[in-house]
Design a protein that fits this description.
By secondary structure, the protein is of the alpha/beta class. The protein has 10 helices and 19 strands. The chain starts with 6 loop residues before the first strand and ends with a helix. This is DNA ligase-associated DEXH box helicase.
Length: 340
């Protein structure tokens, strides 16, 4: 029986021919990392390979590690196995990993989205034989509204709150979602204030991209300074004393889960904006078709439902368990509980 090019084991996704893991969840010798979110880039590996723009991100999050950065489409060979990284469009520095050996090509997406958000390098279709796809939002109920419309709603919401003399507090993950929101907020409306975790991460990314100016909230910041302005904060700050000192305020969350009826109520926010850094149902299907792959492996999300539908379409589709959590895992509690 032949050994598959990539196999799932207790440590992660393993390429035995190269003795390399892709986004391993337990400490290993050699790791290729798709992006900086906590479930995909973990501490403890002996060596890391990732895209050059992800290097400062994971150094900021993981500290002193041995990491080597490669460019898009740059082929690097390990034990006669060819690897290359390709844009995933998920967040800044996010990659798909292409693996080629003995005429066989596999692609591991990590997390990805196909809409160009103006921040991440846009998703690139990579032809392959076997495609390992996330399906965080792998249900037909998930169909995203174009970003331009969502951000117009966000800026209108901010202006309405300003007219009522209230502070707008917008929750988004400190890496990825926060910068996407920041990039498209209208600074002509007012001042954009930030929580420490978001400010610190954004400062890591500013050398790579221009963002609107932000003002860090400190102990000296008075609530009168915040009135009519907007605050970007991580979800874990919700309900803390840090937030309660900002009254009067209105809260909102930007997440794909806001598409679910009741999600806003469960998260105890006043407003929900449906904005995800993952594919919806339709872009998942379009992406899979574009790769030309016949074999599909579904991970993290609505795996069983999505794989079953793919089989009905004629794909050789199956599921694999991982320790990736999609959008839920993007709350980096270590960063986000560091209140300034």
């Amino acid at each position: 029986m032949s050994v598959p090019l990539l196999a799932f084991n207790e440590n992660g996704i393993y390429c035995a021919a190269a003795n390399v893991y892709l986004d391993p969840w337990k400490p290993v010798q050699n790791a290729i990392i798709t992006h900086g979110h906590a479930d995909h880039s973990r501490y403890g590996h002996a060596s890391y390979i990732t895209h050059v723009t992800n290097v400062p991100i994971i150094l900021h999050r993981l500290g002193d590690i041995s990491v080597y950065g490669v460019e898009w489409n740059e082929t690097f060979v390990i034990n006669n196995v060819k690897f290359s990284l390709h844009p995933a469009g998920h967040i800044i520095g996010s990659s798909q990993v292409r693996v080629e050996h003995k005429g066989e090509v596999w692609v591991f997406t990590g997390d990805y989205k196909t809409e160009d958000d103006g921040v991440a390098v846009p998703y690139e279709v990579v032809k392959c034989d076997t495609f390992i796809t996330e399906c965080t939002f792998g249900l037909p109920a998930f169909k995203w509204t174009p970003q331009a419309e969502v951000m117009a709603d966000v800026n209108n919401w901010w202006q309405e709150n300003q007219s009522e003399g209230k502070t707008s507090i917008l929750f988004g993950y400190s890496l990825g979602k926060a910068q996407r929101l920041l990039k498209h907020l209208n600074p002509e409306i007012g001042t954009i204030f930030t929580h420490g975790a978001i400010e610190n991460m954004t400062n890591v990314l500013r050398p790579m991209m221009e963002f609107p100016a932000t003002t860090l909230i400190t102990r000296e910041t008075k609530k009168e300074e915040l009135l009519g302005n907007i605050v970007l904060a991580p979800p874990s700050a919700h309900g803390t004393t840090w937030i309660r000192k900002m009254t009067p305020f209105v809260t909102a969350s930007a997440s794909g889960w806001m598409a679910f009826r009741g999600a806003r109520r469960r998260r105890a926010v006043d407003k929900g904006f449906v904005l995800s850094d993952h594919c919806d149902w339709y872009s998942l299907l379009d992406s899979i078709k574009a790769t030309g792959a016949e074999k599909i492996i579904c991970t993290h999300g609505y795996t069983d439902i999505f794989a079953k539908y793919l089989r009905e379409l004629g794909y050789d589709a199956r599921t694999e368990k991982t320790q990736y959590e999609g959008e839920l895992s993007e709350m980096d509690k270590k960063d986000e509980n560091t209140l300034t």
